[in-house]
Amino acid sequence: MVLEAVIELNDKEGSSLNAIRKYIQTYYDINNKQKASFHSLTLKAINKAVANGELEKVKHSFKLSAAERERRKDKLKIKGLLDEVSLCLTFEKRCLIWQLYHRRS
């Protein structure tokens, strides 16, 4: 959810913690039990993404790291190739491309 929020907000200087929280509250249904721990859970998720190298902290904001942007671009390229040639491929080749597309780096 946090990565999706940062991508959708698409701020050049990065998205603030409050903006990320507002996005999540707007687009996801959060019940009363979850509201009590919502702030701490979003902070944990952001810190985990920073530790994994998916986000980078810029002053008091967060944006996608360069490595994560490249990984997402590569996935989109592979998906585009899969869409173009899916009709003329055999089942085995489609399975290989699917595995390549869903591989975690």
The oligomerization state is: single chain
Note poorly predicted spans. none
CATH architecture of the largest domain: Orthogonal Bundle
Spatial extent as radius of gyration: 17 Å
Indicate the mean pLDDT.
80
Shape: elongated
Percent strand: 5-15%
How much helical structure, as a percent, in the residues? 55-70%
Distance between the termini: 19 Å
By CATH, the superfamily of the largest domain comes out as Winged helix-like DNA-binding domain superfamily/Winged helix DNA-binding domain
Q: Within the CATH hierarchy, at the fold level, what is the topology of the largest domain?
A: Arc Repressor Mutant, subunit A
Q: Please give the number of β-strands.
A: 3
Elements, N to C (H/E)? HEHHEEHH
Name of the CATH first level of the largest domain: Mainly Alpha
Can you summarize the main beta sheet?
3 strands, antiparallel
Number of discrete domains: 2
